[in-house]
Every structure is written in C-alpha cells, then in structure tokens.
C-alpha cells in the first residue's frame, strides 16, 4: 500500500514538474520575444539614426565637394564687352597676371617671390620701364631681374584648370555677323536667344570644344553663300534648319 502511494506521489510529482517546466518555458519564451522585440526596436532606431547620420554626412560631403569644385571653376574670357568680362570673372586667381587674365605663355622671374606674368605683358612692361634704365625690374616688388624664363610646369598646371564653355551664359543675338544689315537671324529656331552649354573641362581643350564640338556655337547656314537669309544659328539647330528650309535651299541652287 505504501508502495502504491509512493508511486502515485511520484507520478503526481512528475506531472507537477512537467507543468512547472512548461510554464517556465512559456514564460521564458515570452521574455525572449519581449527581449527580441525590444532589441529589434532598438536596432531599428539605431539603424534609422545611423541612416540619418549617413545621409547628413553624404549631403555635407556633396556640398563640400561642390564648393571645392565651384572654387576651381572659372569662366574662360572670350567675351569682348566689359559687361561680359565682369560676368565671366575668373574665380581662381592663383595664376593671374597683372592683366587680370590667366597667364598665357607664363614667364617666371627670379625675384624673391618668383612672380609669374604673361610673356607679352612683362615684355610690354619692361619696354615702358626701361625707357631711361637698362635694368629690368619686377613689376610687383621692384626687384632687379636677371633671369626670366618660360615655366613649363606652371603652363601644365594652367592647362589642367577646369573651365566652363564661354557659351554657358551668352546670347546668340550678341554674336557679330559679317553683314549685319543684310542678314537675318532665324528666330523660328531660337525662340529663346539665351543659350547654355554645360561643358566643363580642362583649359587645354576649350579651343577645340568651342570650334568643333560645342552645340551652342554660332554657325552659318551652308547655303548662305547662295542667298539663304539665315546668318547665324546654333550648331544643334542646323539639321532642323536644313529640313525646314529644304525647298528654299533647292530653289537657290543654280
């Protein structure tokens, strides 16, 4: 009888232990879920903050890069009027001459600071300065100069300066024509006379771009010599002009 009671008690103990273990596991599972949810929420918040910081850092870097790039850009002076010269004022003054242009054929003097000038500018200055004196002097600090030589290193640096196309803010109607009284400008193809070229490149390539590649350069109609009334148009508008005035061009051919 005692054995049976003991066995029953043992079974009851096992049953209670099983229930207690199940209850413990369920409680533990709930705690794990709560911890996981909390950790996930924390990770999400951390990730969000990190992404926000990353975005701010990226924006800051882009703004800084743009500012640095903008400081390197300057407009190459091909304009003839004083207004255009003020508009296209060079921002990078590191290689400026007294003429306020980027040095052309830069000459480096052997003065204490090694000043740099355009070859043409320094020759003109010395001709004026040496009227009553055979010695050559630096125009900046008035030191006596014994050596003035071309600086190929500075020329390479200047050639790599980034410039905008002169047509980035010009007007085609301002471009001079050979016969302004007899020739008309095609207003049907250039309703907005303001043209903008987005090209930016090294100074050494600007001439080739202006003459051969710029879509906003002013060109004449190939049939102008036969009597086409359109004098100047944008290079990008030439195909449209040829199509639009096809019949008129055919009538001009003898």
Describe this structure in words.
By secondary structure, the protein is an alpha+beta fold. Among the domains are: 93-159, 2-Layer Sandwich (Herpes Virus-1), CATH 3.30.40; 170-199 and 216-252, no CATH class. The protein has helices at 2-72, 82-87, 119-129, 152-159, 206-213, 238-244, 246-252; strands spanning 74-75, 106-109, 116-118, 136-137, 144-145, 148-150, 162-164, 170-171, 194-195, 200-202, 218-219, 233-234. The strands form five sheets. Strands 1-7-10 form a three-stranded mixed sheet. It has a three-stranded antiparallel sheet with strand order 3-2-6. Strand 4 and strand 5 form a beta hairpin. The longest helix has 71 residues, at 2-72. The termini are far apart. The model is unreliable at 1-5, 57-91 and 172-191 (pLDDT under 50).
CATH class placement of the domain at 93-159: Alpha Beta
Strand order, largest beta sheet: 1-7-10
Summed up, the helix count is 7
Q: At the third CATH level, what is the topology name of the domain at 93-159?
A: Herpes Virus-1
Describe the main β-sheet briefly.
3 strands, mixed
Query: Which blocks of ≥5 consecutive residues have pLDDT under 50?
Result: 1-5, 57-91, 172-191
Mean pLDDT: 67
CATH superfamily of the domain at 93-159: Zinc/RING finger domain, C3HC4 (zinc finger)
β-strand number: 12
Radius of gyration: 39 Å
Secondary-structure-based class equals alpha+beta
CATH arch. level architecture of the domain at 93-159: 2-Layer Sandwich
Q: Which percent range describes the beta-strand content?
A: 5-15%
**Percent range for helical residues?**
40-55%
Assembly type of the chains comes to: single chain
Characterize the overall form. Answer: flat
Intertermini distance: 136 Å
Order of SSEs, N→C? HEHEEHEEEHEEEEHEEHH
Protein name: RING-type domain-containing protein
Organism: Reticulomyxa filosa
């Amino acid at each position: 009888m005692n054995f049976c009671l003991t066995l029953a008690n043992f079974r009851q103990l096992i049953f209670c232990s099983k229930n207690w273990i199940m209850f413990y596991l369920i409680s533990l599972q709930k705690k794990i879920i709560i911890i996981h949810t909390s950790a996930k929420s924390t990770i999400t918040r951390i990730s969000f903050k990190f992404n926000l910081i990353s975005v701010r850092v990226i924006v800051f870097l882009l703004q800084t890069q743009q500012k640095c790039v903008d400081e390197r850009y300057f407009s190459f002076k091909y304009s003839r009027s004083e207004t255009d010269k003020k508009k296209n004022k060079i921002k990078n003054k590191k290689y400026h001459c007294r003429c306020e242009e980027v040095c052309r054929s830069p000459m480096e003097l052997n003065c204490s600071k090694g000043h740099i000038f355009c070859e043409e500018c320094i020759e003109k200055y010395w001709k004026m300065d040496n009227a009553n004196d055979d010695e050559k002097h630096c125009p900046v600090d008035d030191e006596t100069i014994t050596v003035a030589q071309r600086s190929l290193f500075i020329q390479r640096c200047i050639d790599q300066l980034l410039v905008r196309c002169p047509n980035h803010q010009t007007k085609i109607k301002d471009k001079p024509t050979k016969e302004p009284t007899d020739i008309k400008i095609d207003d049907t193809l250039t309703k907005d006379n303001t043209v903008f070229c987005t090209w930016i490149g090294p100074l050494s390539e600007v001439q080739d771009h202006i003459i051969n590649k710029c879509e906003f350069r002013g060109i004449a109609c190939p049939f102008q010599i036969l009597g086409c009334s359109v004098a100047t148009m944008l290079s990008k508008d030439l195909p449209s002009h040829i199509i639009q005035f096809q019949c008129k061009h055919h009538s001009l051919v003898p």
